[in-house]
Amino acid sequence: MTLLQRLFHIPLFVPVQTLALASGPASLILARVGRTLDRMTPQLSAPSTPKERQAKGHIALVGAGPGAADLLTLRAVKRLQQADVIFYDRLVDPEVLELARPGTEMVFVGKHVGAHSWPQEKINRVIVTEALKGRRVVRLKSGDPGIFGRASEEMEAADEAGIPVELVPGITAASAAGAALGRSLTSRGVANALVLTTGTGCASDPFPDCTRLSGPGTTTAFYMSVRQARRLADQLMQKGLPADSPVDIAVEVSKPGERHFAATVGSLADVIAACHITGCAILLVTWPEGGVPTVQSQTAAGQTAEGPKAVTAV
Amino acid sequence: MTLLQRLFHIPLFVPVQTLALASGPASLILARVGRTLDRMTPQLSAPSTPKERQAKGHIALVGAGPGAADLLTLRAVKRLQQADVIFYDRLVDPEVLELARPGTEMVFVGKHVGAHSWPQEKINRVIVTEALKGRRVVRLKSGDPGIFGRASEEMEAADEAGIPVELVPGITAASAAGAALGRSLTSRGVANALVLTTGTGCASDPFPDCTRLSGPGTTTAFYMSVRQARRLADQLMQKGLPADSPVDIAVEVSKPGERHFAATVGSLADVIAACHITGCAILLVTWPEGGVPTVQSQTAAGQTAEGPKAVTAV
């Protein structure tokens, strides 16, 4: 079997003999990769047949990572290939959906920024309904499903219906932003803790105190916080972070519209307004041990950011 | 071209005509996957030739994820395939190394738990030395290189030598542990912030106050904290977390030796001792909003943990 057959468990319409006759290092590589993946994923099988569908359903909450198709894990790609139906929302890049089998049913459960998405309860209901039909359901979520992905609610709905549910982890936005900016999120003697938080709350807490954990020795990654930037910057300064402390803004990381901006805590809200940053962005603030920012990323304030798409903010 | 050729940019010794003649859904799938990955990774090229090596070197700090080969990203696999030399340490599973090309030079820079690793300065020096020879260097790191991966030091060494350096993000241990345990790390109305911290400090701060950010509305993921468990549990209880609050212990997530244990804050140190947990583990503590733990994972204290390898702790 080839790597593809092993990895995706899909019959490939090339005679196995042809591949077996292949020689040279490439065929060795493929055999080794295939064997490795085989051993690591013994539970996988081919896409379900109509007969199997009657017997069992399954829900996988799959992390799509930040956007780029090549930042999916191999396991996530396999789940997409095995799915009978995929529920996705606006944050999942169209490129990622192309990794599924053609003909896989795709259901869009959210609209674009600022418009309404499906209520969570409706999503819970439809994924369970599809699984109860015996189908393999993938709920594809931006980033990591366990981090600001509302996985709890979908897992509870599946559990109540007796549907097996699997979590497939993904690259969370903070990791992707740090990598794109060429900076580490933790650093010895500077930040020994990383806080992932959000400026966007829920109905019972619409304006969460998302800066409450920021302080000396931390990096804080603010998710979904662009609209709350002025409030959170004011809070950080009230807590003692100097106004000239750098803030990295990573917009649409790994997507075609990726942009990086360098601001300071004091200029954050103005930079966001001036640069028309409205959508999917991560704000990274390192508050160094000792309290005075000394380490900056490669997109430090006032310098030209690196990378072809990078922009230096005002 | 096949997916494999596009994905790994390695000549495959099968006539292209043979693949082009293939019909049916599988070949369509492969063409679509290949096109997608091609578009997303235009910067990739084949492994370097001796001539190219004279012209340029490159260092990629690549996240290997928690252990299982299928939890690498597609981009990480590509970097392994392109590497001339790979530096890895004890936390990287041998299965992952099999994803590299045969004949790739592999350098082990760390020893097993409790024994000495290479000093960081030596690692910095050798990766730069190899890149200055014009080689493609992969520094393969467990988890995400930007989270407790000492990426800052290796990036600084590369920058000082003028070597281009790339960060490839990986699945960090907290994400992997949450997924393995079937629990979300954040949850509306329970925990709106996630703290990643470590009980193992550096020379200047050997016993960091790793519980300082834990409090109502947080989940804390403690990395490298097994040996500090009694101290951190005492600190959590002193801060007001009830002794019967659940703690999930995820050991060697996604590796062959994976085990899950359920403890409470009060029993944590005793469970770790009784179950002989000494190595690579993540401790997850959710301190719910309102202060009283009400939500537990599927491996809640006192219940049999799920999964074939799971064990219920004392």
TrEMBL record, chains A, B:
Signal peptide: none
Coiled coil region boundaries: none
InterPro entries according to UniProt: 4pyrrol_Mease (IPR000878), 4pyrrol_Methylase_sf (IPR035996), 4pyrrole_Mease_sub1 (IPR014777), 4pyrrole_Mease_sub2 (IPR014776), CobA/CysG_C (IPR006366), Siro_Cobalamin_biosynth (IPR050161), Uropor_MeTrfase_CS (IPR003043)
Gene Ontology biological process terms, A to Z: methylation; siroheme biosynthetic process
Sorted UniProt keywords: Methyltransferase, Porphyrin biosynthesis, S-adenosyl-L-methionine, Transferase
Enzyme class: transferase
Enzyme Commission designation: 2.1.1.107
Stated family: Belongs to the precorrin methyltransferase family.
Cited Pfam families: TP_methylase (PF00590)
Protein name: uroporphyrinogen-III C-methyltransferase
Top-level division of the source organism's lineage: Bacteria
A GO molecular function held by the record: uroporphyrin-III C-methyltransferase activity
All copies of domain Tetrapyrrole methylase, residue ranges: 59-268
Pathway named in the protein's UniProt entry: Porphyrin-containing compound metabolism; siroheme biosynthesis; precorrin-2 from uroporphyrinogen III: step 1/1
Gene3D superfamilies: Cobalt-precorrin-4 Transmethylase, Domain 1 (3.40.1010.10), Methyltransferase, Cobalt-precorrin-4 Transmethylase, Domain 2 (3.30.950.10)
Naturally occurring in which organism (per UniProt): Phaeobacter gallaeciensis
CDD domains: SUMT
